[in-house]
Design brief:
This is Nicotinate-nucleotide--dimethylbenzimidazole phosphoribosyltransferase. By secondary structure, the protein is an alpha/beta fold. The protein has helices spanning about 5-15, 20-35, 45-55, 90-100, 105-110, 135-150, 165-180, 195-210, 220-225, 230-245, 255-265, 285-290, 305-325, 330; strands spanning about 65-70, 115-120, 155-165, 250, 275. The protein is about 50% helix and about 10% strand. The mean pLDDT is about 100. It binds alpha-ribazole-5'-phosphate (RBZ) and nicotinic acid.
Length: about 325
């Protein structure tokens, strides 16, 4: 993959997204209709098989190679007291991922997913976006390119997740920039801030909206001005997956917010994405509603790290096992209704 070089090159890529293979989806739908079950009885599993066929371009899709890409970044706004944990935890958790001790390590291994953790300049926090841009253009483009480059050849499913203390405030600010509304309408408790912390989060979002004003009306500029490196990299990975026809599982509030600019830039920009779960982070459900994404799981998780996306791979594996392995009525000699 050649580097994109500028925001305008990224924008051009977003305006010319492949549509997937409607013929393969149609063939998968036709196969579902003749498998040995009452029509529609596998519910959403049938839609998932069709979705995977559409994006993999094969009527019998597989997940032999699933990858989870976890991007880590550091945020200037942590100095505003917006997290229940210190900023140093970001680097410490990167070490924990490498040692195999985090939740996502267990969930990825259990679901047969290759896990890659990509730290993005974690020793250099982004700017405090209440007082200036989070990133200059070079830093933003470098982070998007890092996300694009992280999608490995041959991946058949990409899960995206993040680590970055303070990033639920970043995600809330980006949501307010993209969809409107005030800080209090988009913030949640993240790692577990108290009421005073929640108020500081809302104030931080509002201060950023006030500082940047109309410059936030462009989705890519919003992602640069009030985003973060790990969110930009998720955006890049989701874009690259689309360009290569690879389906994506989004994780929680932060990962979904990171991908959201693509929906704003292009009609159906996230149609190759599934929401792995709805996080307990307050506004994730509303964000998914705005993006017309229906989550696969609702387990009260609010961790991030790609944990919900990795867990949901099991559901997709179940859907594809039925789709590929079931006998048809004709093969099994079972009477149709
Ligand atoms: C030990 C630990 C492990 C984590 N894994 C993911 N996060 C999650 O929490 C952070 C966002 O919440 P906030 O905006 O409140 O800081 C992100 O790093 C996210 O991935 C973690 C947070 C902690 C403390
Ligand atoms: O839903 C998320 O992405 C989330 C929630 C809490 C903390 N970190 C991430």
């Amino acid at each position: 993959m050649a580097g994109t070089g500028s925001i305008e090159t990224i924008r051009a890529l977003c305006c010319d997204l492949p549509a997937g293979d409607a013929g393969a989806a149609q063939a998968a739908r036709a196969r579902q209709a003749v498998l040995t079950k009452p029509p529609g009885s596998l519910g959403r599993l049938e839609e998932l098989a069709e979705f995977m066929a559409h994006w993999q371009g094969r009527d019998i899709p597989t997940i032999d190679k699933a990858v989870a890409l976890i991007f880590a970044g550091s945020h200037g706004i942590t100095q505003r007291g917006v997290s229940a944990f210190p900023a140093a935890v970001t680097a410490q958790m990167v070490g924990n991922f490498a040692a195999g001790g985090a939740a996502v390590n267990q969930l990825a291994r259990q679901a047969g997913i290759d896990l890659t953790v990509v730290p993005l300049d974690i020793d250099t926090p982004t700017g405090d976006f209440t007082q200036g841009p989070a990133m200059d253009e070079a830093a933003f483009v470098a982070a998007v390119d890092a996300g694009r480059a992280a999608v490995p050849d041959g991946a058949q499913l990409v899960c995206v997740g993040e680590m970055g203390i303070g990033n639920t405030t970043v995600a809330a600010t980006l949501c307010a920039a993209l969809f409107g509304g005030t800080g209090s309408e988009w913030v949640g408790r993240g790692t577990g801030v108290n009421d005073a912390g929640l108020a500081r989060k809302a104030e931080t979002v509002d201060a950023a909206l006030g500082f940047h004003g109309d410059r936030l009306s462009d989705p890519l500029e919003a992602a640069r001005l009030v985003g973060g490196r790990e969110l930009a990299a998720i955006f890049g990975a989701v874009l690259e997956a689309r360009l290569r026809g690879v389906p994506v599982l989004l994780d929680g509030f932060v990962a979904t917010a990171a991908a959201a600019p693509l929906a704003k830039l292009a009609e159906g920009g996230l149609s190759h994405c599934l929401a792995g779960h709805v996080s307990a982070e307050a506004q994730h459900g509303r964000l998914l509603g705005r993006l017309e994404l229906r989550p696969l799981l609702d387990l009260g998780m609010r961790l991030g790290e790609g944990s919900g996306a990795c867990l949901a791979v099991n559901i997709l594996r179940g859907a594809l096992a039925c789709h590929s392995g079931m006998a048809t009525f004709a093969e099994a000699g079972v009477s149709e209704g």
